């Protein structure tokens, strides 16, 4: 009987392990397939893509990358994307850290209402409905023809990041705040000298999320730069590659541009993945 139980447990354990690996394999395939398809598609001819050729290119057309780089003026649009994404990242990290600190440490009138509104915005997506009033507001402020309009528009909607920082801050002992106040620190001193240095792991997560969202954004960047094409970001420029002077959609050139546009976000993740994982883990435990 004991031997049969051991065999049954052994089979159950193996089934569980195989099931986990199958599940992980499916997730990996669904995650990597779009990237692999984009890279391989960027090396095909337009005819191969539109007529449904094989998965791998019949011939490797690396000249697609040169055409994409020249047609899209990637240098100019890459600079725009770097300026926008970096600015959004810094602003998001600063505003989320301050908002998360106040929500975690202070009680004030209307706090519950504010948090309820923040929570509702996390689950109710208004999407493009909000773009017109945002654009009109920025136009009234005479900012619609500057790159600051896009930066401000992309910095908004940080409710999820605010709650990440708030949950992390709640895990920091309040005794540290009290000790700092006894030593003469003001509220700003507690934030800058105690909370901010200890919040680096979760701020790395916020920064990476913000950079990724700003770099990959299309619709907001398109609307905010529609009257100023020279301020367009790389994502908008890549989509424009599809429209050629020959009146035919050049998907191979667009995929080549998309492959180039993927590189910076991969580089950022490779350098920040340790802080990203550490921040998510710390936030999960302390939140």
TrEMBL record:
Signal peptide: none annotated. InterPro entries: MetI-like, MetI-like_sf. It is found in: Cell membrane. GO terms for cellular component: plasma membrane. It comes from the Bacteria. The chain crosses the membrane at residues 21-40, 82-104, 116-135, 147-169, 190-212, 218-239, 251-272. It is a multi-pass membrane protein. One of its GO terms (biological process) is transmembrane transport. Residues 78-272 form the ABC transmembrane type-1 domain. CDD domains: TM_PBP2. Keywords: Cell membrane, Membrane, Transmembrane, Transmembrane helix, Transport. Belongs to the binding-protein-dependent transport system permease family. This is Sugar ABC transporter permease. It comes from Lacrimispora algidixylanolytica.
């Amino acid at each position: 009987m004991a031997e049969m139980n051991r065999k049954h447990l052994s089979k159950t354990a193996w089934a569980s392990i195989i099931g986990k690996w199958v599940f992980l394999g499916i997730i990996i395939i669904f995650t990597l397939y779009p990237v692999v398809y984009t890279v391989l598609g960027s090396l095909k001819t337009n005819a191969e893509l539109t007529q449904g050729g094989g998965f791998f290119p019949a011939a490797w057309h690396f000249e697609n990358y040169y055409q994409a780089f020249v047609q899209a003026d990637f240098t100019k649009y890459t600079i725009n994307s770097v300026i926008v994404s970096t600015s959004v990242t810094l602003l998001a990290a600063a505003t989320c850290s301050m908002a998360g600190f106040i929500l975690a440490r202070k009680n004030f009138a209307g706090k519950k209402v504010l948090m309820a509104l923040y929570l509702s915005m996390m689950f109710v997506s208004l999407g493009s409905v909000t773009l017109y009033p945002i654009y009109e507001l920025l136009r009234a402020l005479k900012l619609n023809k500057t790159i600051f309009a896009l930066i401000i528009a992309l910095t908004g909607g940080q409710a999820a990041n605010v709650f990440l920082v708030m949950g992390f801050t709640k895990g920091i002992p309040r005794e540290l705040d009290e000790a700092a106040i006894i030593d003469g620190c003001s509220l700003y001193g507690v934030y800058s000298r105690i909370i901010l240095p200890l919040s680096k792991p979760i701020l790395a997560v916020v920064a990476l999320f913000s950079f990724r969202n700003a770099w990959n954004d299309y619709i907001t960047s398109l609307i905010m730069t529609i009257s100023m094409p020279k301020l367009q970001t790389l994502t908008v420029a890549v989509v424009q590659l599809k429209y050629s002077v020959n009146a035919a959609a050049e998907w191979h050139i667009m995929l080549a541009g998309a492959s180039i546009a993927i590189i910076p976000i991969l580089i950022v993740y490779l350098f920040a993945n340790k802080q990203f994982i550490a921040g998510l883990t710390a936030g999960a435990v302390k939140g």
